Each structure stands twice: as C-alpha cells, then as structure tokens.
Queue: 3 jobs
Job 1
Amino acid sequence: MALWVLLVLPIQKVQSQRGDFSFGLAPSYKANGYGISFSVNNYRSATDYVHLSITAVFSNEQPDATVEFPYEDYLLNLGYFTTILSRPNRGLFMYFGGGASTGYEYINKGETDVVYGYQIPKSGMIYGGFASFEMDFYLTDSFSLFVPIRGFYHLNSNLNNAILLVGAGIRCYLK
C-alpha cells in the first residue's frame, strides 16, 4: 500500500501542473504607444494549445514631422501554438504559434481631416494574421509569468500593415 502511494503522488503532481484552460492578461509596449491583451488558451496536449485573444492597441501615427494623430486597433485573434522548448524541472516553457487576426482600426477619433496637406485615412475593419513567440515561467502550479512577443500583419490596414507588441503578464491555469 505504501509503495502504491509513493507511485501515485508524483503522477498526480505532474498532472496537476497544467489544466485544460488558462487565462492571461498582458500589457505590452509598442513604438509610440501601448497595448493590452486578454487571452484564453485551451491545451490540447502537453505540447500544444489553441489560443483566443482580444487585443487593444493605442498609438500615434506620425507620417511626417508636421502631422501626428491617434489611432486604436481592437483585434480578435485565433491561433495555434506548439512547444519549442520545455524545461519542466526549471518551470520554463517556450511556445511559437500564429493564426488569424481581425478587428477594427479607429483612426483620429473618426475624423478624416486634411492636416498640412496630408489626408488622414478612414477608420475601418482590418484582417490578416499574427505570429507569436511566448516564454512561460511558472511561479506556482496555478500561476505563471509569461512574456509574449507578437507580430501582426493586416492586409487592408490604412496605416501600419505591421505591428509588433512586446509584453509581460500573468497567466492563471484552471485545473
């Protein structure tokens, strides 16, 4: 009986380190602005997961030295991630993934004025894809610190087709 207990306890501990779902919140930095992302991950196995996130980006566009105007991107992202490096005994995991991204680009509070000869573009829907590299550092069985580096490319954006966000946040695992 004692031998059975000694064998079962380590197995339960290994299985309890990661649940089927995790929720994360990560503020991030962008050139001339900032962003915030809320994500939900559904772990399909020990090495991969499906990712759903809502991201908001707030920034200023400066096409030349005389013109500057604010814009906001609100994005919904759906992707797939896989493990590229794992060190469970040290609590370190690295993931790479990507997928589809769609949202709304809100430019200059909806105003399309001409400023110093520059026509400010119209707000509108955007779509494209994203790629992401994430490092996950386990703090406890239920919480981890994660560092996402996300690149977005939106095919029909009126401003920046490419956006890079670098952040750090907390992830909570459900058991």
Job 2
Amino acid sequence: MDKYIKFSRKPYDRVFLVDLIDETDDMKWKVLYYHNQDFVLKSIVNGQPFTRDGHKKFLEILPSLKRKQYIVYFDHRAIGKLSWTPSDDGKVIRDFGYFLFNEDDLMSGMGLIMAAVSFHYIFDVLNVEIIHTSALIGNKNSRNLGKRFGFKVVGKDEQCVFMDCTKEDYHRVSKSIDELLELYFSL
C-alpha cells in the first residue's frame, strides 16, 4: 500500500492524506498539541484534552485500532486530522470527525477542502454507502459544512446534532463543490 493517498483531479491534486500509522513520530506527537488547543477543544464533540500518558498508550495500540486516522496535507503543509470508524463490511462510517491544526486556517477554505477530499475519498474511492456523524449544537460552521455536503439532520440531544449523508446525497452536491473549490484555489 502506498504511504500517501493522492488525488489527480484539481484542486485535490494539492492534497494528500497520510495514515497516522505511517506518520513520523514527530507528527504523531504533534497531534497531541494540535488536539489540545482551545479552539479545537471548543469545537469537537469530545472536547476533553488528551494527556501525554494517554496519548502514549493510544500510539502503542494505534496499529490494532479499527478506527482510521489520517493527517491531511495541503501544498505539503499539515492542515488537519480526520478520523472515522468503518463498519466490518466497509459500507458504513460512524463517528466521522475532523479538525484543523491552525486557528489561522479557520474560514480560509482549508476546512472546506479537507471535508471535500475526505468525502471524495470515502464515497468515490472506498465506495462507502453512508456516513453517520455528529456536531456540537454550537458548532455552526461544522453543521453548515455538513449540510453543504449533503448531510441531513437525523436527530439531536442537549449537546449534539446527529447527521447522516448517503453516497447519493453527496453526489447531488459534489460537482458544485468541486467547481467552487477549483475556482477558489485557482486564484
């Protein structure tokens, strides 16, 4: 298996994914720092900081975990992390999540391209049929981004909104997103 997941179509040709297992030790430890930033903890569903000991244990069991973890690079710069848990048959993804590494990247298009390449990979390469995810009720950026990609709200509780997206939902909007990204990143 190739260490990098690359794409040939614009603007995705500027993005690649690296499985966290294949990352450098330095990047594996940087994830701890990135995750524990205030702006990240305030926007993710499990907003608890990671400890150094807990992260060490996570890295030790990482190769045996079913959950997939990727670092996303744009123009060879690490911009964020995405993760999900696939079903045994690979057709369903649960607990899809992502976060940007740098607060300066908020509202810059990096979240949009990160989500777009993720969903392109999940639906078009892995051939997944449906993604189940959640977002904090107060995280309007994440909720709106999900809706832009075809996610539909299927429930909520006091803390979270639960959303699903099928391959068909995604494909209804993917062409317009691709065109938007191509225009945005060609400027």
Job 3
Amino acid sequence: DGSLQVQGRIEFLDRDGFSTRGVGTLKIILAGSSSGGSHAESSWESDLNDLETNGQYYDEVTRTYLYSLSLDEVGDVPLEPSLHVRLVLPDGRILSDKSDIHVSRSRSGSDDLDD
C-alpha cells in the first residue's frame, strides 16, 4: 500500500536451544539518529501473556513471532537504525537483544531497507 514498514521475526529459544513460544510483554524499538542529528525512535509493544495476541503473532511453521512496525514517513527511518527487542517475563526477568539494520539510500531520496 506504499506505507513504510519494518518487518522482522523473533525467535525465542529455551535453555536447550529449542524454539519455543514466549510469554510476557514484548517491546521492539527502532532507534538511531535522524537526518537532523537528533535521536529518532519508533516502537511496537505486544502483550504475549494474552493467548489470543500470542497466537496472532506466532507463526507455527517458522516457530517465530512476526512483527511489523509502521512508520509515518521516510524521515522516521533513522540514518543508522538498530532494532532493540526486549521481553519482560511474568517473573520480572528481562530478555533483550539488538540488531543493526542496513539502509541503502538512493539518489531520489527514497529508502530501501535491505535487512
């Protein structure tokens, strides 16, 4: 539909390294510097404690959670973005990870997300 989106998959592993579902509050943040040098940030949050919500985002084939973070305009895409993922478990423990995203910028000013 022409809207800008960052999509990705999150896989949770148990202590033996097997894919598993997650429970808790999941927060995903796209952050980095804007073209003006200030900090830019967009976020998405989901309550995976809710069984209906958990099932809505979980893909049984890939055993991952698929998320989509919508951005309002090209200016919302940071120059050197990174994704921060944080899951707060029901007992208060926190699981987190971060991944950098490569953005190639064409001469026409549009952005292509490569990763």
